[in-house]
Amino acid sequence: MLAILPLCFCAASRSDSKFSLEGPGLTAGEKFVIEQLAAGKSADLKSQFGEGTNSALRGIFLEALMSQPGTNVHRNGISIEHAIIPDAVNLRNITVRYEVNLVECRFQAEVDFSKSVFENTLSFTRSTFQGPVNFSAMKIGRAATFDQASFQGEVNAFQLEVVGVLNARESHFNSPTGMVDFTSLKVTGDAFFTRATFAGPVTFQYAHFAENWRCEGCAFTNATALANFEAVQVGATTSFADGTFAGYVSFKDARFAALGFSKVNWPVTHLDHPWLWLNGMTYQRITAGSEKDSWNNLYDLVQRTARRSAYSADIYASLEDYYRRLGYPKQANMFFRAQKQREREEVLTGFAWAWSLFLDWFVGYGRSPQRAIFWSVAIVGIGCLVFRPKRMEPQNAEHRARKYSAFWYSVDVYVPIIKLHDAEIWKPKEECVLAHVWRRIHTVLGWALIPIAIAAWTGMLAR
User: Does residue 154 lie within any of the structural domains?
Assistant: First the structure.
C-alpha cells in the first residue's frame, strides 16, 4: 500500500493540473500574444516573427486563453492574426465574454466549439480549417464572421445560433465528400453567403433566417451531391442570383417571403432522373429575371424539370395563384394548364386521361373558352360540306320554293334548344347515307359540346 500511494498522488496531481498562462512553459509566440492582448492590441504573429515556428500556437494555449477565469485580456477582446495551430482545439462547453477575432489563422487539426457560448462577436476572417470543424449547438451573442474562410473537411454547424449578423462571404467549403451541416441554423439578423462555394453535400434543412439571406453568386459545384434547403424559413429576401447548381437541389416545404432565381445556372447533366424538388415550397414573391422575363423563366424551369422531379400539383398551383394575385391571368392559366398536362402524363389513365385531354383541346380546361368557338366553327364548316344543296331535299312539297342554306342548316342541327327551323324544313336525301349519319353525329356533338362551352365561358370549369 505504501508503494502504491505515491502513484495515486501523482495521478491526482496530473488530473487536476491546468495549463498556466503565466508559467515558464510558454513559447515566444504565446508570450507575445499575452503581451499584446493585455495591452489591448492585436497580436499579429506574422509581422512579429515572419513565417517561423514562433507563429505556432498550441491548441491548449487557445483553450486556456478563452476559458480560464481571470485571464489578463483587455476589454478590446482577443485578436490574433496569422497564427498556426498545429494540434486540436477543444473549446466545447465554454463561455467566452470577450470579442474574439482569429484572422488568417490556420487550424491544422480538429476544432471543436460545440455547445460553447460567445457572448460577443466571433470572427474567423480568411482563416483556414484543415481538419473537421464542430460548431454544433454553439451560440454567438453578436455577429459571426467567416468571410473568405476555407474549410477542407466536414463542418458540423447543427443548431448553430447567431444573435445578429452571419457573414460567410466568399467562404469556401472544399471537401467533395465531407458534409456541410447547417441543419436548424438560426440567425436573428441578415445572413450573407455571397459567392460562397460548396464542393460537396450541404444542408440548411430547418434553418431559420429572421431577415435577409443573401446567396448571390453561390456555387454548388458537385454534380452528385445534394444541396438541401428543405423546410428553410426566411423572413425577408432570399436571393440565389447568378448562382450555380451542378447537382441535386431540394426546396421541399421551404417558406420564403421573397425568393430570387435571377440568372441561376441549373444542372445540365441530370436528364434521366429527378434533380429538383419544389414540393410544398411557398413564397409571397418570386422572381427569375426581369419583370418581363421572370414568369417565362419560371415556366421553363418547372417544365424542364417536369419529368425529372416528383409530381406535385402544388408547385404549379402556387405559381398560378401567385400570378393571378399579381393580375396576370394569362401567365396564371399557363401554369394551370401545365399542371393538368403533367397530371395527365403521370397520374391519369383510361377515361379520366381521355377526358382531361378533351378538356385541354376543347376549352383549355376552362381557361381558354374561346377555343370552343374555333371547334364549333370547324364542326359547322364540316356540316356545310356534308349538307351541300345537292344532297338535301325539303321534307314537304310546299317547301320546295324555299331557299336552302347549308350554313344555317348546319348551325340549326348543331346548336341545341335554339330553333332556326331549317332542320324542320330540310333533310338529307335518302340515298345520301353520309349526310344522314353525319346529321346524327352533328346533333350529338352539339348537345355534348355546347354545354361544356357554356360552362367554360361562365367559369364553372375553371374552378
Answer: yes
Angle at 35 between CA 30 and CA 40, to 5 degrees: 125
User: Is 30 inside a domain boundary?
Assistant: no
pLDDT reported for residue 13:
38
Residue 253 Cα distances to 159, 180, 280, 282, 337, angstroms:
19, 20, 4, 7, 23
Do 394 and 320 fall into the same domain? no
C-alpha cell at 215: 446567396
Using alpha carbons, select from 412, 400, 405 the residue that is nearest to residue 439: 412
141 and 40 assigned to the same domain: yes
Name 373's Cβ contacts closer than 8 Å, sequence gap at least 6: 453
Per-residue pLDDT, 69: 60
Query: Who wins on pLDDT, 85 or 423?
Result: 85
Domain holding 220, by residue range, is: 35-346
Distance (Å, rounded) from C-alpha 249 to C-alpha 247?
Answer: 7
Buried b (16+ CB within 10 A) or exposed e, 410-449: bbbbbbeeeeeebbebbbbeeebeebeebbeebeebbeeb
The domain boundary, picked from 312, 346, 380, lies at 346
Quote the Cα angle for 41-43-46, to 5°. Answer: 145
Q: Which amino acid is at 447?
A: W
- Name the DSSP letter for residue 89: E
pLDDT in tens, 278-322: 888 999 999 998 888 898 899 888 877 655 555 677 888 888 899
State yes or no: pLDDT of 325 exceeds 50. Answer: yes
Percent of the chain at pLDDT > 70 equals 92
Burial label, 371 (beta-carbon count in 10 A; 0-12, 13-18, 19+): middle
| Grid cell for residue 8 | 495515486
Q: How far apart are CA 154 and CA 161, in angstroms?
A: 19
Structure-model confidence comparison of residues 333 and 182, the more confident one? 182
| Residue 52 reports pLDDT greater than 80 | no
DSSP run (H or E) holding 340: helix 329-346
Domain check: are 402 and 311 in the same one? no
Q: Verify that 296 and 411 share a domain, yes or no.
A: no
Q: Check whether residue 150 and residue 298 sit in a common domain.
A: yes
Q: Beta 426-428 vs 392-394: how paired, if at all?
A: antiparallel
Which run of H or E residues covers position 442? helix 433-457
Query: CA neighbours within 13 Å on the CB side: how many for 125?
Result: 12
